[in-house]
Amino acid sequence: MNKKVEWDIVVPIKLPISLKNVEPGKLHPSLLREIPQGGKLHYLAADAWNAMVDAAKADGIELKPTSSGDTYRSYDVQKAGFLQRYQLEPVANQSTKTFEGKTWYLKRGMAMMATPGKSNHNLGLAVDIHSASEKKRLDWLIKNVLKFGWSWEVVPSEPWHIRYTEGDQVPQAVKEWLALHPKDPGIFGTPAEQKAAAAAATEAAVKAQEPKKIDISIANGKPKIIKDYKGKAVKEAQELLTKHGFQCRPDGDFGPKTQEVVKQFQKSKSIPITGEVDETTWAALLS
Question: CA triplet 69, 75, 77: central angle to 5 degrees?
Fold first, then answer.
C-alpha cells in the first residue's frame, strides 16, 4: 500500500480537442510551444506552466524542468530512453513492461520509464520539476498546482512529475496571466482553431503511417537468408535487427527465434511477412 503523502493530488486528464486522434510522440509542430527554461509543451500546457512559473517566482520559488527532455518527448526520444533502462534478458525481482509484444525488464539501478507512446510527456502535457521534493518548493506546489491546472500522477514515488489536466478549460489563474501576456499571432486558442490543428495533425499522422518506398538497390549482393542458414550474413542481419529495436542474439544461426523477430520487423515496416531475409528485408534493415 502506498504511503499517504501531503501531495497526494491526482486529477484525471481532460484531453484537449487538438490532441484527439493524435499519435503520442508525433505531435504536429504547430501544437507545441517552447518554454523559457528549455523544452516544449502543448500550447495549453505551456500557458499553464508559464503562468505557474511566474507566480512561483513572485513568491521567491524557482520552477524549472529537470532538463529540456523532461517536457515534450518525441516517440523516438521516449523509445531511446526506454531501451537504455529496460532489457529483454530477465532480471529477478525487477518490474516489467510490455512493449512491441515482448516483456522488458527494468535494469538494476534504473528509474522506471513509460513505454513509448504511453507517457504524458509524449502529449506535451507533462513536466518533471527540478528538485521538486525540496521543502519550500514542494510546499508551494501543494498549495498552487490545482490553481494552474496541474496535478501529480505517480504518488508517492515521483514528486517531480506533474501533468496539465484541464484540457480546453483554461483555469482562471491562467486566464489572468494570459491577459497580461497576450499570445503571439497564429497560436491556436479558439475551439475552431484547435479543431483545425487536430485535423492537420491527424492528416500528417496518416501520411506518416503510409508505407514508405524502400530502395532495394542498397541490398545488392546480400544473400537471401532462409531457415537454418548460418554465417556472417546472418550475424549482420541479427545485429541490424537489434539496431532497429528488435532484440536478436547475434549468434550467426538463422533459427526459429530469429525468424520470429524477422517477422515482427517485416510487419513493422509493412513489407511481406515471410520470415526470411530477402532483398526487400535487407533493404529495410540497411536503410
Answer: 40
Q: Measuring CA to CA, how many Å separate 10 from each of 151, 162, 180?
A: 5, 9, 29
Q: Rounded to whole angstroms, how far apart are CA atoms 237 and 275?
A: 12
Residue showing cell 517485416: 266
> Which of 243, 249, 234, 235 lies closest to 265, judged by CA?
243
Domain boundaries, the chain: 17-73+119-209, 216-286
Torsion of CA 98, 99, 105, 107, to 10 degrees: -140
Task: Give me 93's grid cell.
Answer: 525481482
User: In whole angstroms, what is the distance from residue 33 CA to residue 132 CA?
Assistant: 23
What pLDDT was estimated at residue 111?
A: 87
Q: Is the pLDDT of residue 113 over 80?
A: yes
Residue labelled with grid coordinates 525481482: 93
Domain 216-286 in the same topology as domain 17-73+119-209: no
Q: Enter the DSSP assignment of 107.
A: P
Contacts of 198 (CB under 8 A, 6+ apart): 17, 18, 19, 20, 21, 22
Overall average pLDDT of the 219-234 stretch: 90
For domain 17-73+119-209, the CATH class is alpha beta
pTM of the prediction?
0.64
- pLDDT tens column, 127-139: 999 999 999 999 9
- What CATH code would you report for 216-286? 1.10.101.10
Cα separation, 287 vs 279, in Å, equals 12
Q: What per-residue confidence (pLDDT) applies to 1?
A: 39
**Residues in contact with 151: Cβ distance below 8 Å, sequence separation at least 6, in sequence order:** 9, 10, 11, 145, 162, 163, 165
Q: Is the pLDDT of residue 2 over 70?
A: no
